[in-house]
Amino acid sequence: MSYFSVDSVSLSFGGVRAIRDLSFDVAQGEVFAIIGPNGAGKTSVFNVITRVFNASSGRISFDGKDITHVPRHRIVDYGIARTFQNIELFEGAAVIDNLLLGRHRFPYGNLISEICWLPNIRRAEAESRARVEDIIDFLELAPYRNSLVSALPYGVRKVVELARALATQPKLLLLDEPASGLNPEEARDLAFWIDDIRSDLGVTVIMIEHDMSLVSQAADRVMCMNAGQVLAIGAVDEVQSNPTVISAYLGT
Amino acid sequence: MRFAYDTSYSDAQQLLRYRSQWICYGALAIALIVAPWLLPAYYVGELSYLFIVSIASLALMVLTGFTGQVSLGHAAFMAIGAYTHTLLLDQGIGFIPSILGAATLTGFVGFIIGLPAIRVSGLYLAMVTLAYAMLTEQIIGRWKDVTGGFTGIPVSPPSLFGYDLSSLKGFYFLCLVILVAVLLGLINLMRGRTGRAFIGVRDSEAAAATLGIWVGGYKVLAFVISAFVTGIAGALLAHHLQFLTPDGFSVMLSMELVLMVVIGGLGSLRGAIFGAILIGMLPTLISKIKPLLPTSISSQFGLETFVFGLILALFVMFEPNGLNGRWLKLKILFENFPLYRRNTFRRGKTYMHSERYR
Ligand SMILES: Nc1ncnc2c1ncn2[C@@H]1O[C@H](COP(=O)(O)OP(=O)(O)OP(=O)(O)O)[C@@H](O)[C@H]1O
Ligand SMILES: [Mg+2]
């Protein structure tokens, strides 16, 4: 059985069938890209995986476990983290607190020891802080550590969101259009980071992306979707030159 | 100039990190300790009252400022705390078990009231809590055998380990100690995992859930904690009033508490106290100023409400971050003198933020 697999999953909103009988597999350590025209159902795939929506049929499994019916706030315990297309940061909090929130799932003391700030809480906080500082170093966020998110430019927010996802120490990372709104320089940094995330941290990555230069630079395989269905899966140049894919983008 | 310079992650956990902070808070502590001997009796009582409303304001801040849930029902939590404490004292139960019992019962009611918050928020939640507050006022008024109804019941004086604390000074220190304890506990809770989760729930439920935060659970937890602490404030208020009637806990009190947290600055415990001091002192201030005003104004009915409204409107327009926002600006001005940048606090662009999943 493959590391991550989506097995004939469907999802509809009333009459709109956002995903139709979709299946694909991702191998451990792979960077897998999803492309497709607007409204193809790409984000919906992430929403089904992270349990925002219930699939109307089908099965999703990860690392040998069926995650089709796991409660939404438990998904992270299975080692799955994500970012959002429209950035969902905690705007009223500093960058450091956003990242510490990524550590929510790790062991911590009970409410009473938290109220009294007992040594076990101090240790847990120092430990979290150390892990988060590693990520700050890795993604070069040090200048923004104590800034409020609401004061940050768009490109930095994108990186903070990536950092927060990494703070959960995921095994599978879902990135929804990580390069949208980034300038070319930031997009290049991102390609290198994705590579490091896979090779140094050993994280499997699924990313939705429109920027084909990033896709060809970072991804091992790519899946093109249209109208909730798979058009083609394979190596990047293969899919890019596939006639049905081309016609889907041209809208014929 | 002052730079934040940590040499270890535990440095960053110190509450008071600089000598200047030790000096300021030390001076404040000394001032508060000697105040009852220096101030006229009336003001000592007034300060005790400010401590009590500060506790309630802190409690509402946890709910509204940190989890973003509006409550117009906090007067009812105070009432439940006050009546339960009074009734328990009448049963001959000691002060500490009685106040804890009152707080626990209030916390339990907070749990029940918090349950609808899993489903509704914003204006609808405000309505639910308002309805609950009015219902509580009615129940207290009608349940004569226990609460004394609208005629009210007297409150027995506080005493701790055999010491009578009903004197002005005794009660002042009782309230001060409880305020400091509540404040420290909440500071810890809000800077720890629970407080961060509250902020997460407030700013993005979608993101919070993907990080493993059980959104509904934390919303209810915020209600429980807030109600528990409000129950403590209510119990102390009972001693301050010395006689309980349901109209001591009207919707106006809930409104004042909301004003305190909004004017103080949502999301800051310090702001809750600033707000409580300002709003708590207003009635006294107004009554002092009143004789100086022309009779055509001072005889107007509802002058207080008007001033409350005016202050709220001014804050919302000119300082949305409240008194705490002002405070931070002044502080940064002094710390970075002479290098103040006017734009430090200018908010960046707000990018499209929607809790829709696409
Ligand atoms: N919450 C929702 N309620 C109703 N319809 C939805 C919802 N979310 C998505 N849809 C619909 O499902 C379809 C797929 O949407 P989805 O957001 O997955 O597309 P996408 O491939 O991510 O597009 P884009 O490139 O614009 O982000 C669209 O027709 C969209 O209108
Ligand atoms: Mg999308």
List keywords for this structure.
heterodimer; A: 252 residues; alpha/beta; B: 358 residues; mainly alpha; two-stranded antiparallel ribbon; 4 strands; 2% strand; binds adenosine-5'-triphosphate; binds magnesium ion
Would you mind describing this structure in some detail?
The complex is a heterodimer of chains A (252) and B (358). Chain A is built from nine helices and ten strands. By secondary structure, chain A is α/β, with parallel strands linked by helices. In chain A, helix 2 runs parallel beside helix 5. The two termini of chain A are 37 Å apart. The relative contact order of chain A is 0.18. Chains A and B meet through helix 1, helix 2, helix 3, helix 4 and helix 5 of A and helix 7, helix 8 and helix 9 of B. The complex binds adenosine-5'-triphosphate and magnesium ion. Adenosine-5'-triphosphate binds next to strand 2 and helix 1 of chain A.
Could you give the topology of this structure?
The complex is a heterodimer of chains A (252) and B (358).
Chain A: E1 4-13, E2 16-26, E3 31-35, H1 42-49, E4 57-62, E5 65-66, E6 80-82, H2 95-101, H3 111-116, H4 119-138, H5 154-167, E7 172-176, H6 184-199, E8 204-208, H7 212-218, E9 221-226, E10 229-234, H8 236-241, H9 243-250
Chain B: H1 19-38, H2 41-67, H3 74-90, H4 95-114, H5 122-142, H6 144-147, E1 153-154, E2 159-160, E3 163-164, H7 168-191, H8 193-203, H9 205-210, H10 215-241, E4 243-244, H11 251-264, H12 269-289, H13 295-298, H14 303-318, H15 322-335
Antiparallel strand pairs in B: 1-4, 2-3
Helix pairs in contact in B: 1-7, 2-7, 2-10, 2-11, 2-12, 3-4, 3-5, 3-10, 4-10, 7-8, 8-10, 11-12, 11-14, 12-15
Magnesium ion binds at residues 42-43, 85 of chain A.
